[in-house]
UniProtKB/TrEMBL annotation:
Name of protein: Potassium channel protein
Phylogenetic classification of the source organism: Bacteria, Bacillati, Bacillota, Bacilli, Bacillales
Xref: SUPFAM superfamilies: NAD(P)-binding Rossmann-fold domains, Voltage-gated potassium channels
Keywords: Ion channel, Ion transport, Membrane, Transmembrane, Transmembrane helix, Transport
Transmembrane segments: 12-36, 72-93
PANTHER family found in the cross-reference section: POTASSIUM CHANNEL PROTEIN 2-RELATED-RELATED (PTHR43833), POTASSIUM CHANNEL PROTEIN YUGO-RELATED (PTHR43833:SF9)
Amino acid sequence: MINFTVRLYDRIPVLIRLLFIIALILFTFAFMLHYLEPETFPTYFEAFWWAIVTSTTVGYGDFTPTTTIGRLAAMILILFGIGFVLFFVTNLASATVNEKRRWQKGTLSSSFHDHYIIVNWNERSRQFIEQIQRAYPTRSVILIDDTLSDSPFYNSNSLQFIKGNPSFQETLKQANIRKARALVITAGLEETEQSADAQSILTLLTAKHYCDDIYIAVELLTSEQLPNARHAGADEIIASNIISSLLMTESLEQQGIAETITLLLDVEASPFLRSIPCPDEWVGNTFKEVSRQVYEDSKLLLGISKDGQTTLNPEGSTVIHEDDSIFMLDSSR
């Protein structure tokens, strides 16, 4: 029993132990003074008040012991109580500074919930975080990166940096991935595009193995890795090089298309592109019927996605099913 109590005591944080010792000292001396000098300290609360102001060196002087034994008790409280209080305050300040340093260095585990996790620090991830903050200011974001030495975020309670290899489970655990809303894997600054994609696939496999129900979007630079990303369980694949090349090709013949696509994807623009689960009232209706309904609400139906296959502007007779995802332009907020 004694060994169990010792082990339990050792597991308690130092600050909690100090606080417990200080409280025990204050309650003990308050009881002693109330018992020894009931005329000076008629209530236990007044004795406890005196013990607090004495041990914290405030010393208002509204209550003072008058007997010799009472003053001896006060001397002991001053010698031991003040030492414990100062030690507690010093450790509290040290713990605060240490936690701030760990947060800056990326070694502090996150307590975020329903947050986004983005892997690798680059220009795309920086812009992604800025857009999230503008469009969804209440959402928290965690950045995982192994190249930074300090956090790129300053004075923000909704942004946190985790330093570590994203393909390690311990790093993902530190980012509280099981409570996260989604994970975005951007291509790292590797020597070649192939090695960057290989690292992204490895991170994807680790994340899906550790938390198989999290939604993951992964950026790939080469087309060869697209089948591997699908087999690894990627929910969304962003082939950034392919998208860029398509935009550059079409912009030569159709001027302004790149700006139009960018505008459609900008959540701060109006109208903006949305993907939503099929509402119950649309199930069983045709694409043409639903298009007429939503047009009255300043919405424009663009297409349907089912089982990973997207059909833009399907035939008007196409029936919408419960498991379909709907793409639309929405002017409302």
